[in-house]
């Protein structure tokens, strides 16, 4: 297997790898959107002055943060179709798993972001007659998201890497595809080096844009 | 216009406001002063319902602030408030700061809101700063924008919480000038401040607070003539000496 490197292997595998990458990117993108959306709701619930509401959110967060992601993926992959009584496809099962799992992590980031905006900004919104919802949406959250953009992107990069765990339920993401091809063609070195380079480049672009965005939005 | 009757408030076990009563008639200017921690900010935050209180009653324009049935957002939209640290929205330009609540709360159109904002910016001498962001302005300019933002809602009363105490000395007057003009226009105002020059010039009454009590509530002449309480006398001599 160390007898010379054959770059042609990777080239021939590109269409399949691209399919895998599409799966990975879709899963990552949708999980980020869903995770941030529910994470924001959870964060607002955690900060609620209603005890039962904040208790529920805190329990949710602590529960999911104490589980390994791989277990959550297993669960949802087998549980969701059972609960719904019909198969919804592996992609949607793991998407739900990722959204629910990541929401717990995003919640903590977003909560810190909201708390980084001073309480008097809330008062300033209220004093103008804005409602709670308007104050959050128009005044607090935009500032909070600017403050936490770097952390949010870092978490998203970690999640991008974590999507490779769908391997355990046999879904064909980028890394699983690379693995399958490396087995088929018996070319692990080429394929895993290529996979590493691709992950590296994407994460580099991600963290660089995090830095650029932060500079742009720093107020 | 503003009636405060026997208001008491606690933060947990801490008694912040103790049986406070006062009133501000339409067009009157009332200055509130007193040592740090005496409850001045808390009192004016109770007036527009930013802080709840446990006992007593406050009415603004005959609307009960403490009543659960009161639409507080609606009430607050017509009671302007100016904060010590300006509290402009840093992610919006100056003009957007002034337009936001006009559009979202009063339902004005973009064009109406913009026209009103530009008029008010002219009034506080900042038309040329409309497109800038708050961080690009000096403290005095930011506070004038904050006043314009409150005025854009056509308030029937204005509350000020130490509007000049975060400012460099050379900027204090540009803000006070705007406030004096406002008072002379007949605005009903409650102003927490230690600017006694301002108080002498425009205040109808002065309230002195100490440890949650309203210790003194006198006309401006009375107050500066002979404050009745010893605490107020001491306080006055301290702030007038510098
Ligand atoms: N959210 C809060 N929770 C608990 N205690 C508070 C809270 N806000 C204020 N206090 C306390 O209530 C008291 C009155 O506060 P307040 O801000 O009304 O004083 P103040 O007269 O405005 O003082 P200053 O001149 O320093 O602004 C202070 O002792 C303060 O520590
Ligand atoms: Mg205060």
Looking at the structure, the CATH topology of chain A is MetI-like fold
Small molecules (ligands, ions, cofactors) in the structure: adenosine-5'-triphosphate, magnesium ion
Which architecture of chain A would the CATH scheme give at its second level? Orthogonal Bundle
Query: Can you give the helix content of chain A as a percent range?
Result: over 70%
- Which ranges of chain A are low-confidence, i.e. pLDDT below 50, for 5 or more consecutive residues? none
Q: What integer is the average pLDDT of chain B?
A: 92
**SS field, number of helical segments of chain B:** 9
**Share of residues in helices of chain B:** 25-40%
Q: Write down the overall geometry of chain A.
A: globular
Assembly state of the chains shown: heterodimer
**What is the highest CATH level, the class of chain A?**
Mainly Alpha
Q: What structural class is derived from the secondary structure elements of chain A?
A: mainly alpha
The number of strands of chain A is: 0
Sequence of secondary-structure elements of chain A: HHHHHHHH
Report the strand count of chain B.
10
Strand content of chain B: 15-25%
User: Mind telling me the C-alpha Rg of chain A?
Assistant: 21 Å
Largest sheet entry of chain A = none
Separation of the first and last Cα atoms of chain A: 55 Å
Globally, the shape of chain B reads globular
Strand order of the largest sheet of chain B: 6-7-8-3-9-10
Q: Mind explaining what this structure looks like?
A:
The complex is a heterodimer of chains A (219) and B (242). With 219 residues, chain A is mainly alpha-helical. Helix content of chain A is 82%, strand content 0%. Chain A has helices at residues 7-46, 51-65, 69-84, 90-115, 119-127, 132-162, 174-185, 188-217. The longest helix of chain A has 40 residues, at 7-46. The longest helix of chain B is centred in the last third of the chain and has 16 residues, at 169-184. The A-B interface holds A 120-121, 123-124, 126-131, 134, 138-139, 142-143, 146, 219 and B 45, 48, 50, 72-81, 83, 85, 87-91, 100-101, 104-106, 133, 135, 149-150, 153. The complex binds adenosine-5'-triphosphate (ATP) and magnesium ion (MG). Magnesium ion (MG) is lined by residues 40-41, 161-162 of chain B. Magnesium ion binds next to helix 1 of chain B.
